[in-house]
Amino acid sequence: MTELDHALARFHFCAPEFAGGLTNHGPMVAESLHVLGHDALIAAWVDIYSPRLEDAVDGRIMPVSARFSALGGGAFADWSATFRAELEASPWRSVLGEWLPELLPGYFARATHGPIRTAHAVRSLEEEDSGIRRLELAEALAYWAAGFRRLPGVPGADSEPGLGALEILTRVPIVEARDRRPGFLTDAIEAIPEQGQFARLLAKFDPGDAPPLGQLAEVCAEITGLYLANPRARMAYIHALTGTSALRLLAPYLNDDALRAGLGFALQAAAALHATFCDSTEGVEPDAERDALSDQWDELRYRAACSLAEHVIKVTETCWRENLARPHPNYGRVAADAVLNLGISRGGRGA
């Protein structure tokens, strides 16, 4: 088995959350370290991270007739048992093709960790189909299904020609500071009213004829600018970026209509985080150390991996992925900012 497989096998004995609602990032980070080219650090990551996690519990397979109606409800353990059974009975691509269109409307699941974990699991299976990796896909889909979360408005329900994804994101109404909610990211978005400007704006989303992944690239690049302009809300914008980019890895398993719908739901999730955490949309302030590091991708990948900090590793891998798809200087800046400012090691260079 590979280092990634060993890590996934260990994490499958762990619950998907710990400490009252924090997401278990273990499988996602292990796969990111593999993609970054630093498999030698995966075992260290597991050793450092896993002691904080809680034990998994067994569940029961859900009745077929109750599954789709139970999205956003039911115990994770029951969803896990259900998807394990489905993946034993059918090829993983078939299960994914059946379930992704149903899950997309709840894209914000667990602050986008549902689709993010699923995307990492899918990429690992594309590399090598194995029982351990199919089990990880079952866990990922279960986390998305159990945490399925609709946000205010239905993207595209009242589409207005010309209001593409980027235009929507730049027009998001920002929640006033006095109305914001403390707590997890999932708590913060409760400040967005079910019926209001946010919902009306998202309803106007027009996917148009432009390639959805091209629009996705534009949104991701815009989010990097918002991340850099809002240093007090780094975590929110990290999830906006990694959550949005996850759709790129899921896109091959969606037909054109489903992919355009998925773009709307990913946009909606990013817009909700922007609406509830934005302090500034001004230009990016210069930072000599960050900017000097921003185009050194080998160094960024190394320092992110050595940080053993989950969000540094994940956002650096996401920035590298998006920069390869459509280069933009802000991807290197975001990765460098994360390496320099998040986690406890400042990137593994002894600083």
Helices, strands, pairings?
Elements: H1 3-11, E1 17-18, E2 22-23, H2 26-36, H3 42-49, H4 76-89, H5 92-103, H6 113-127, H7 131-147, H8 165-170, H9 185-188, H10 197-203, H11 212-229, H12 234-250, H13 256-277, H14 288-293, H15 297-307, H16 310-325, H17 329-341
Antiparallel strand pairs: 1-2
Helix pairs in contact: 1-2, 2-3, 2-6, 2-16, 4-7, 6-7, 6-12, 11-12, 11-13, 11-17, 12-13, 12-16, 15-16, 15-17, 16-17
Description:
There is one protein chain. By secondary structure, the chain is an all-alpha fold. It has 3 domains: 3-146, no CATH class; 165-277, no CATH class; 288-341, no CATH class. Helices cover 59% and strands 1% of the residues. The protein is built from 17 helices and 2 strands. The chain has helices spanning 3-11, 26-36, 42-49, 76-89, 92-103, 113-127, 131-147, 165-170, 185-188, 197-203, 212-229, 234-250, 256-277, 288-293, 297-307, 310-325, 329-341, and strands spanning 17-18, 22-23. A two-stranded antiparallel ribbon has the order 1-2. A hairpin with a 3-residue loop joins strand 1 (17-18) and strand 2. Helix 4 (76-89) crosses helix 7 (131-147), helix 11 packs antiparallel against helix 12 (234-250) and helix 15 packs antiparallel against helix 16 (310-325). The two termini are 35 Å apart. The model is unreliable at 345-351 (pLDDT under 50).
Short key terms for the protein model shown above:
single chain; 351 residues; mainly alpha; 3 domains; two-stranded antiparallel sheet; 2 strands; 59% helix
